[in-house]
Specification:
Beta-Lactamase, single chain, globular, alpha/beta, disordered C terminus
Length: 467
Amino acid sequence: MLIFPLLRFSPPALRLQRLPCQPQTPFSKFSPKLPYPTIHSSPFSSPLRILPARFSGYPRKFPNALLSSYLASASAGEDEFEVELDRLLALLPEEMRRRVSEHPELHQLIEVVMDLGRKPLARFPSGDFVLSDCPITVQDIEFATSQVGDFAIDNRAGISRTLHRISAIRNRKGAIIGLTCRVGRAISGSANLLQDLVKDGASLLLIGPPGVGKTTIIREIARMLANDYKKRVMIVDTSNEIGGDGDIPHAGIGNARRMQVPNSDMQHKVLIEAVENHMPQVIVIDEIGTKLEAMAASTIAQRGIQLVATAHGVTIENLIMNPSLEMLVGGIQSVTLGDEEASRRGVQKTVLERKGPSTFSCGVEIISKTELQVHPSLEATVDAILSGRFPHFEVRKINSQGVENKVQSEAFVHNSSDEKNGVVEDGLEMNEESSTLDELISEPSPDMGGSSAQDMSPVRVFAYGFF
């Protein structure tokens, strides 16, 4: 047997076994549930594999595939509303769905109305649009309700994980004879006009007519508080309009949590339960409409919790005159003055005064989707209204320009001896094509004289825009 010394050993080259090829999935089809971006790697000509990649900003050598995935995820947010809108339009018959899809204002659709025996209507900002020349039949209503599910006691239903709301009209026997399919939207930036107040931790009460955008604004405020300012936000969702229908809330509320209300009569109990069980820093409420709910909100405010809520009414005067909601502004009581005090004030002996502190620190009157009247001190506004004076407020608007612009206001002139309110004059540098100053504030003309300024309230104007 011969033995040779071993000087060098070279092992045979490893042979890589190719994995069976799997169908490749395009980046745009990746599940949005992935918590971070993904990239594809293909070493040794092997099939593509999904590798997680966490990064901050763009690396020096940014992979083309990763860049495509990043851009695709950004565009996916823009297409999300179209997907949700398609789910609502799926409730309509094919011919009606086709006609509404061809309308030039499709993305501004407000609601679709279907009443038995009448022509269906689609409501847009420009007006109503007839979807079919044939009246709605029982089969049309049954087709829509079969895809929605059961209606709650308040005759409302929704589509899971969307913000749409379907409301039913019933006859005396309980059969559904009409539907109102309202489009819900989560509009990013809709609360930018109130961002300074939200950041300062002010409790906000929003009032305005139906359809002006109250729910849209408080939804964005909830997202802003939870995501941008990292606060513990709990939404008490009366009819699932803020967080959408279903057990999983809509992405429009961000990291805010949501408690559903099984019955509108139990909302005041759910409010107290949210505070006692979940330690929130902020409570968001939609549609405070009863005295019990107003009392619950007042109790929560006394615990130092920030409140954001909407209430029924058009102006603050409506809340003052509403016996069920007057507690939100501190309550109203009748006071009898002595002869000397009444003479000094120049009023009658019996006057109305605010009973106690207001539940909310700021009040917001929503005039339109682009204009707000902000009362920084709700208590001062109520006191001024009860005493017959004009309250101080700010007018905040979204202008037509493409840049965000905050107009600085000069201090208003106030003559304490004459008790006259001056008028703020803002120096605005605007193009000829932009709106004039008269559209932003009311300014007395030179020939009106100083006496006419007595009936005008000091107004601070903030003009905003979006990119």
